[in-house]
Amino acid sequence: MELISWNIQWGRGADGKVDLARIVDTLRGMADADVLCLQEVTRGFTDMAGSPGRDQVAELTALLPGYRVLFAPGVDRTGNDGSHRQFGNVVATRLPVHEVFRLALPWPADPEVASMPRVALEVTLQVGTRPLRVICTHLEYYSKRQRTAQAGALRDWHTQACDHARRPGKSESKPGPFTPEPRPAEAILCGDFNAKPDDAAYQRLLVPYVDATPNWHDAWLHLHPGLPHAPTCGLYDKEQWPEPAFACDFVFVTANLLGNVRRCEVNGETDASDHQPIHLTVDL
Question: Rounded to the nearest 10 degrees, what angle do helices 56-63 and 20-30 cross at?
């Protein structure tokens, strides 16, 4: 299974231009991906830098024939003109989809900084003969308090899913919403965590569980032991990121998937966004 995770900054490259076709061309040049996990996709926020189109979910759907495009807005508002204004994450996949969850992440008050609501989009996919959970998220940038709370919520969500995997719920006698889908313990968690490796949110995600929940592991470190993370932000857009380039985008896999990971590489060549995409290959 080929997966690419990328904060696409609503398609805005280092040249300031918004071009979703360029984003998709870059993705296709990296791999014939089964799953695309994209952050910073918008509907209705046409007044942002570069003037993105009114419905980027529709644009991506048109650019990705054969993929099912799923969207989870963290921000979901109505403008003064009655228009929908949304900002969030996309999972696009050509694999069979069993179930979709949209998890609103904690947003405790932190009045000293700017912030926005955040979300995690989880999709249970059928990969060959086995189900797999893929979670695409984007944590808060300005507020360390919110970001750390959001990492904790992702840990709790994973514990809950694994408890369902160990102890599946009963079904009603007739098919319907009380008939549960499988909740596999095997999972991939990816996105822009707005956290460097020394940040409390990153560290919290990697704390070992005290029960039977499979621990999260950084797939890049697993395949590149002893090396610092390849930078995923600030390589080309020095107007937004004058500091040295750094890593804040990651792909985590559960311990029961570590032996299946074959590739985790950062594309350091593209300047189609202010972040760099990460390509994961898992042998399933």
Answer: 40
Q: Does domain 2-169+179-282 have CATH number 2.120.10.90?
A: no
Q: Which residues pair with 278 in a beta bridge?
A: 5, 266
Residues 6+ apart with CB under 8 A from 262: 281, 282, 283
**Whole-structure pTM value:** 0.97
Region 192-206: mean pLDDT is 98
Which two three-digit tokens encode residue 276? 């760099």
- Confidence grade of residue 113 (pLDDT, cut at 50, 70, 90): very high
CB 73 within 8 A of CB 43: yes
Number of Cβ atoms within 10 Å of the Cβ of 16: 10
Strand, coil or helix: 147: helix
Contact 24, 63 (CB under 8 A): yes
Quote the tokens at residue 165. 């995997």
Structure tokens at 129: 């003969």
Any idea where the domains of the chain sit in the sequence? 2-169+179-282
Mean pLDDT of the residues in the chain: 97
| pLDDT recorded at residue 253 | 98
Is pLDDT of 79 > 90? no
